[in-house]
Amino acid sequence: MTNTAVPLTALEEICAAVDLDPRGAEPVRLAENQIWRLPRERAVVRLSPRDRLATAAREVRVARWLADNGVRAVVPLDVDQPVELADQVATFWEEISSHRHGSIKDVALALKELHTLTPPTFDLGALDPFVRVPERLAVAALATEDRRWLLDLHADLADRWAAGLPSGLSHRVVHGDAWPGNVVRIDAGRLLMDFERVSVGPPEWDLVSTAVRTRTTGVVTEDEYAEYCRLYGYDVTEWAGYDLLARARELRMTTYAAQHAARDPRWQAQAQHRVDCLRGRCGSRPWQWVGVL
User: Fold this and answer.
1) What gap in Å lies between CA 149 and CA 151, rounded to an integer?
2) pLDDT in tens, 142-183
3) At a CB cut-off of 8 Å and minimum separation 6, what does 260 contact?
4) What local confidence, expressed as pLDDT, does residue 5 receive?
5) What is the pLDDT of residues 110-125, one digit of tens each?
6) Cα 57–Cα 247–Cα 272 angle in degrees, nearest 5
7) pTM of the model
8) How far apart are CA 257 and CA 277, in angstroms?
9) Rounded to 5 degrees, what angle do the CA atoms 13, 15, 18 make?
10) Considering 50, 66, 94, which residue would you say is the last residue of a domain?
11) Domain boundary among 72, 94, 116
């Protein structure tokens, strides 16, 4: 997995397929998925590896389904998409001109709204908390012993997941990556975005994200978390399955950092810190992890 920008000639071909003008295209984010802004169109192109065609098509359908259900979300352009070209899968979206990360309150209210919806008639697939974790470990910049330990952790957590969760909330549509960067604020209110991980599963998976940001990384304060639980109406840390899903989320965050460290040494220290935390080398939680781009 690399984060090398696609050549502009390839981006031009992709845009030409849907009659969009790519002149002046600006990279917004070059990570697992690439985001390009098309200033002449006031639009955004999202590029993913070609093997994610089904995921890209589902993202567009989810966005349209949310709009049909009155949920404010990013809007896909009215073009024939996704487009496969130049080893990429492209989706096209209206640009959000002025926005910022949402608050913990925004996340709680957005999830409460999402989790009340009746699932759509099209297939969303079942939640997989470990999607792409093995691929990330395969390319991670880690010592052999640390990689082996994480592989064993992954196997243990996957076995526990397969054995079934304790009784909890009814399975619903889940966002899959619910954090303030994906519940943004605009002048008209909050806006939901990034539907790559939308599926059907336990709502606790979405709720664990903020709990981990409180109890594991220390980014969210205990007071903020208490307000989050009050607004949503449920504290996932009191659920018997919390440990499993929290550790799965921590594993995802650690392998994400290790994957990025493989191509950018700036993240090596943070990736190693996360491994050391999981292995009991850094004391008790919260561990004050910093974000990796």
Assistant:
1) 5
2) 999 999 999 999 999 999 999 999 999 999 999 999 999 999
3) 3, 31, 267, 271, 292, 293
4) 64
5) 999 999 999 999 999 9
6) 95
7) 0.93
8) 13
9) 115
10) 94
11) 94
Q: Is residue 286 part of a domain?
A: no
Q: Which two tokens stand for residue 285?
A: 């939680």
Residues 152 and 253 in one domain: yes
Domain that holds residue 13: 8-94
**Per-residue model confidence (pLDDT) at position 32:** 75
Asked if 20 and 126 sit in the same domain, the reply is no
Same domain, 111 and 176: yes
Are residues 69 and 165 located together in one domain of the fold?
no
- The Cα-based distances of 287 to 97, 249, 284 in angstroms read 35, 14, 7
Q: Which residues pair with 186 in a beta bridge?
A: 189
CB under 8 Å to 15, separation ≥6 — which residues? 21, 22, 25, 38, 45
Instruction: Please list the ranges in the chain whose pLDDT falls under 70.
Output: 1-6
Say how far apart CA 233 and CA 255 lie, in whole Å: 31
Report CA Rg, the chain: 19
Residue 268: predicted pLDDT: 96
- What pLDDT does residue 4 have? 58
- 289 token code pair: 């992890």
Give dist(CA 183, CA 107) in Å, integer. 6
Q: How far apart (Å, rounded) are the C-alpha atoms in residues 91 and 223? A: 39
CATH number at residue 35: 3.30.200.20
Residues 30 and 164 in one domain: no
Number of compact structural domains in the chain: 2
32 shares a domain with 137: no
Q: Is residue 244 part of a domain?
A: yes
